[in-house]
Structures are given as C-alpha cells and as structure tokens.
C-alpha cells in the first residue's frame, strides 16, 4: 500500500498534519491530541466509540523516522465537533489555555493551509516561478538601506530614474533633460518641496 502524502502545518511552536483522502482534507488525530497535552490512548478510545467513528479513516503515513505507520484520521470538517467535545474545565489547569487555543485556532489554521495548497496546485506557474534566474536577471531593483542599515530591494521598471534625494542638483539635471521647458520651473519647485518634506 502506498503511503499518503502529508502536509505539515506549523501551529503553536509545533506541527499539525493534513492528508488528502478522496480530495478531502483529513487530520491525523494523534498530533492534535498530543499537542493539546491529552493522552492519545484515551482520546482514541473516545473517538472510536463516538459519532465520529463513521467518518474516520486509517491512513498509512510515512513518519518522521521514515517508517510507514497507520494513523487514525478525522475529516477536517468534523474536527471542530471533536475539539468542542473536550471540556477545558475537566482537565488539569495547566492544560486549559492550550486546549482553548486549539479549540479556537486549530481548525482555522488547517483549513487556511489546505485552501492555500489547493490554490497553488490549481494556478499555473508564473514565468518567474518557472525560471527565477532569468526573471531576476531581467529586472531592475532599487536597493535602499533603512536607518539600521538593513537593505531592501524593490523591483522598478526600466524607465525608472533613481536619484539621491540628498543631491538636489542631480534632480534638477534629470528634470531639465526630460521635462518640457514651460513645465520645468513648477515641476522642479514641487519636487524639491517634496524632497525637503521627506528629509525633514
């Protein structure tokens, strides 16, 4: 039997898993249960004897150690129902905050990740995804440094003119070469006013 492909979803300094079963998202339950701080054997018994039994599937997954293991999986659409069956007031006080966080965030994180993955699978790749080296080689970037010296690269068109705002003569020279004479005085004044505002 071929092992199912696993999607690892970052969640609360840990990882949750998603698997595809008949084009539907299913959640391997052991990582969820253990992430909440609950005992897997106890929760597995509860899952197996509850209303969720008819929707659960066993999927063969490749574990982190490279070995294939069978895992109990619940449809993502049923996860909220199971999460709400865990009562925070009936667990150890130190587990309550984590359980409540799972109840309010876990299904949303998984659903968002699943939909983003599906969207990426259905959209054709863009030219820069197909050949990123050529894409970058054919771009112009404005590299600037913030006050802490951290560089930022911003793509700019080939028609862009990059100026040093601390050199007003450079701006005046570029404007004189590229702007019709009758518009020049007003445009130079407006540009200089903007530069002074930015620098002050």
Your description of this structure?
- Pfam families: P22_AR_N.
- This is Antirepressor protein ant N-terminal domain-containing protein.
- Residues 8-117 form the Antirepressor protein ant N-terminal domain.
- InterPro entries: Antirepressor_Ant_N.
- The chain is an alpha+beta fold.
- The protein folds into 2 domains: 6-122, no CATH class; 129-199, no CATH class.
- It is built from 8 helices and 7 strands; from the N terminus they run βββααββααααββαα.
- The protein has helices at residues 29-35, 40-48, 76-84, 93-122, 127-130, 132-137, 168-178, 184-199; strands at 6-11, 14-21, 24-28, 57-62, 68-75, 140-145, 151-156.
- The strands form 2 sheets. The chain has a 5-stranded antiparallel β-sheet with strand order 1-2-3-5-4. Strands 6-7 form a two-stranded antiparallel ribbon.
- Strand 6 (140-145) and strand 7 (151-156) form a beta hairpin.
- Helix 3 packs antiparallel against helix 4 (93-122) and helix 7 runs antiparallel to helix 8.
- It is elongated.
- The protein starts with 5 loop residues before the first strand and ends with a helix.
């Amino acid at each position: 039997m071929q092992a199912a492909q696993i999607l690892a979803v970052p969640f609360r300094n840990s990882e949750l898993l998603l698997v595809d079963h008949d084009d539907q998202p299913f959640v391997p339950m052991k990582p969820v249960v253990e992430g909440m701080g609950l005992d897997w054997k106890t929760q597995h018994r509860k899952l197996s004897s509850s209303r969720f039994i008819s929707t659960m599937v066993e999927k063969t997954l490749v574990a982190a150690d490279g070995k294939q293991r069978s895992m109990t999986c619940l449809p993502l659409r049923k996860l909220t129902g199971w999460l709400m069956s865990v009562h925070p007031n009936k667990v150890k006080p130190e587990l309550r905050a984590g359980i409540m966080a799972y109840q309010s965030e876990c299904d949303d994180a998984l659903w968002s990740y699943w939909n983003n993955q599906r969207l990426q699978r259905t959209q054709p790749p863009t030219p820069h995804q197909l050949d990123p080296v050529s894409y970058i080689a054919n771009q112009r970037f404005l590299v600037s440094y913030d006050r802490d010296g951290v560089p930022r690269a911003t793509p700019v068109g080939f028609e862009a003119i990059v100026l040093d705002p601390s050199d007003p003569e450079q701006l005046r020279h570029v404007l004189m070469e590229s702007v019709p004479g009758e518009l020049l005085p007003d445009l130079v004044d407006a540009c200089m006013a903007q530069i002074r505002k930015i620098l002050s």
